[in-house]
Every structure is written in structure tokens, then in C-alpha cells.
Amino acid sequence: MLNRRILRIKAFKAIYSYAENPGMTMGDTEALLEHSCESVRDLYLFMMSVIVPVTKEASARITAAQNKFNPTEEELHPNLKFVNNRLAAMLEEDPDFQKMISRKKLSWEQYDMFLRHLYENIRERDYFKRYLEAEEDSLAKDAKLWVKIFENEFEDNAELVPILEELSIYWNDDLSYALIWCCKTLENLGKGQRWELPALYQSDADKKTEDDKAFVVKLVRAAYSGFGKYYEKIAGSTPKWDKSRICATDLALIVCGLAEADTFRNIASSITINEFVEISKYYSTPESRGFVNGVLDKLINKH
Question: What CA–CA distance (Å, rounded) separates 106 from 50?
């Protein structure tokens, strides 16, 4: 599930926490890393679990309309295609999926207002109207609809942000990646495959891949244990900078880059530098890209 870019981000965040809280032990830092990695899969599960309650919200709307004092003909004979979508039934009846959701204590029950607004938005979309009007009624079409929903309704959703923040400090940053995996799962379900919990590390799913868990743990250990040494190297390479002016974000990025270069000699230095420069675009200041690139290039390529 987690690729090397995501693992580098997780490593950087763990070392950033250490930079901000020097009292953290290596054990604390590794525990933070492990929890942060696992949180991505938890978010994936939480987002996948929205399918059933959204479908139930649609069903409740139809029932309420039918029970009105003077329902219209359309309300009496509604289009039940979405209410009967096969994806919701598959996940609701899948013992492995339900067991995992229960074990993780993941629920949308208290977010009924969000579900209501989400369904209202969905049913106004052109892609949803086309789905209802299409003659073909199949598992594949149901899956394609849910892919559209996951692609269009959750990112940059102002109502979803506080929900994710309430449940985990990691989830808003991880949402885009988790949604990609939700869409992959939906495509597989649309082909008739059963739901399976994704392996947390891609190397767990592909035995030919170098162990990704070992990679990120070694990276964090090297960055943590060598933090002081790397800090002095960074300070020495930037004489015009007061040490106190090097922000913790840039410091953590550069330390991780140096630790990777020292620990994984089989990874080209250009790849290591590029990866941490790319991460700096999302997690640091506009000036950081050039600073991180310059310091890493100077310190790594002079080895």
C-alpha cells in the first residue's frame, strides 16, 4: 500500500517531531512512525466504509418521500438503481471487511449531517444522473459510479476536514493517497473480486520488492541517531545562516536526505535529493526547495 514517497514523508514527519521535541527517545520516534504508517490504511478503511451509510441515506430519503401525505408519482415509483447498488451489499455482507471496521471502531454514525449533504451533492451530479438513466445495470457500472464519487466528492470537502481532524491528526494529509487505494479497490470489486485488506507495505504484496518496512525503519533510525552529526554538517555548510534560522521542517528534510544517502548507497544520490526536494514543496516554505536542494547536493555529492 505505502510506496517509497509516502514512506519518506512518514520518516520526515517522525524526525520533524523529534526536532521539535528533543526529549523523544528512538523508541518514541519509531512508535510514531509505525502509528503514522498504519493510519493511512485506517483512513482507507474509514473512507471505504462510507459506501454503506450513503446508500442507506438514499434509501431513507426514498422511504420518507413515499410516506408523504401526498407523494408524487415519481416519489411513489422511484428509481431504485442506486439504493440497490451491489457495492454496498457486498461490503455490508463481507465478514472480513465488517470485522476489520468493527475492530478499528470506525463508524460514520455520528456524522449523519455530513452523509445527508454528501448524498444531496451526489444526486445533483451529472455523472450520477447518467448512471440512473443508463439501461445497463451491473456490478461494473455500480463500481464505476463509486469511483466517480470517490474521485469527486471527498478531496477539498470542507465538511470532511473537521471529521478527519477529529479522528486522527494524520488523516487530512493522507486523504489523497487513501482515496487512490479506495478507487483501486472499487475497480477490483467491479471485476467480481472479493475485498481484501491491502498489505501495509508494497513489499508485503510484491515479494520481489525490497522490504519497504525495513527501509523506512532503517531510515528513521539513521536520521535519529545521526541527528546531531547531520545538524553540525548542515550548519557548517551554511555559514551565512544563523543556526537558529534553519527551520525545523527544512532541518528534518535535510537530515533524512543525508541519512538515506549514508545508509542506502544503492540508491542514486540524485533520487534521494529529488525525493526530499519534492516533499519540501508540500511541507515547507516556498524558499525551501532551493535551500534543501542546495544543501543536500553540497553535502551528499562531496562524499
Answer: 10
